[in-house]
Amino acid sequence: MARIIGLEGFEVLEAATCKAGLKKLEQAAIDVVLCDVKLPDGNGVDLVKEIKLAHPSVEIILLTAYGNIPDGVQAIKNGAFDYLTKGNDNDKIIPLINRALEKVQLQKRIEKLEQQVGKRFGFESILGNSSLIQEAIALAKKVAPTNATVLLLGETGTGKEVFAQAIHNGSQRIGKPFMALNCSAFGKELLESEIFGHKAGAFTGAIKDKKGLIEEASSGTLFLDEIGEMQIELQAKLLRVLETNEFLKVGDTKPTKVDVRIIAATNRDLQQEVKEGKFREDLFYRINVFTISLPALRDRKKDIPILADYFLHFFSQKTIARINSISKDFTERLLQHDWKGNIRELKNVIERAVILTDSNELTVDCLPLEMQQLHYGSQTLSAFDLASVEKLHIQRVLNHTKGNKTETAKLLNIGLTTLYRKIEEYGLGL
After folding, report:
1. Total-model pTM
2. How far is CA 215 from CA 193, 195, 198, 202, 379, in A?
3. Which of 15, 226, 312, 385 could make an S-S bridge to 20, C-beta 3.0–4.6 Å?
4. What is the mean pLDDT of each run of 10 residues along the chain (430 residues)?
């Protein structure tokens, strides 16, 4: 048998007993096991279970001269790939090994993809060395392995969905569905249908049953962004899910059971919303089991260069020209900005700059006009001042021509003498 399989191009290792076979599995990277049922020191059907416990990705094909249905059924239950009776195996064994190997290789590809997804959406994807962001990450890592409901607080654009995804991938629910919904994007009726689903005929246009996201996320995680925007009537239905793990679809009379973890996020002060009667107090205490506050970008400015560099490489990979650096002046402008839109705003600014740049470095002239304000000592020139606008524009053209003043004057449609005068007046240069 070993010789036949070897001639097909497979590397074959042999073992005469259960003990010897298990030792081989420990010593080498084995994909497929062919195993007899009757062995000197054990039974192949029982061995299948032992092998699968220690090596889940290994596929096992059982061979026996005494085939019977109960043994075959038990072998498959224990995790065997297939069960063959000897004497009827010559034409079947090689195709069967190939099919088992295909399954192993598919599983390996899936595991590799899961690892890549884990890195892309895990805690490794949250960038920053500031104490504020590191404290938030530490809290998220602690709560991730549990099933506790998490409330993420922070301004728009601070990365609440990134944190929610990382918490999901750091839990036992990794590999299960992660569904995200922005509660501010829908009206009451549509939001209810999106979250809880509906039965056919529940309302005009409901021509068939529809699963809601809470059911789609069963065994996984549902992320409800901007939960403070949820209408108070729907808050009662969400509270029931958190308390009983069941809900009613729109138009249904029979409750649906669900196993789902809720991660909620808001940029509102929910305690104030409770006082004003806009948010249910009982729901607030149910979702406020574990709270993580995400810092605004202006409070963690030391992380701006790290984030800018990440976004630069992310967007430059999508362009033909490779942009590999950021000028010192460009970084200074980033550090001076208030970033009311937080990380999302920074991401947009870098994407725009990558599109606009004509070199392999991001420079100030690629920034939005309001961020291009030049500082001379204690004087800051306003982007709305005519002289400031002219100065910025001349500097941009000089940058574009790499200091070629003749070309700059031509592009500006002014005389070369005039250009020299303005360069001296404004103290410009490359």
Report:
1. 0.64
2. 11, 8, 11, 18, 59
3. 15
4. 88 93 91 91 89 90 77 81 75 88 83 59 87 95 95 95 94 92 88 88 78 92 95 92 90 89 95 94 94 95 94 83 86 90 94 88 87 53 64 82 87 89 77
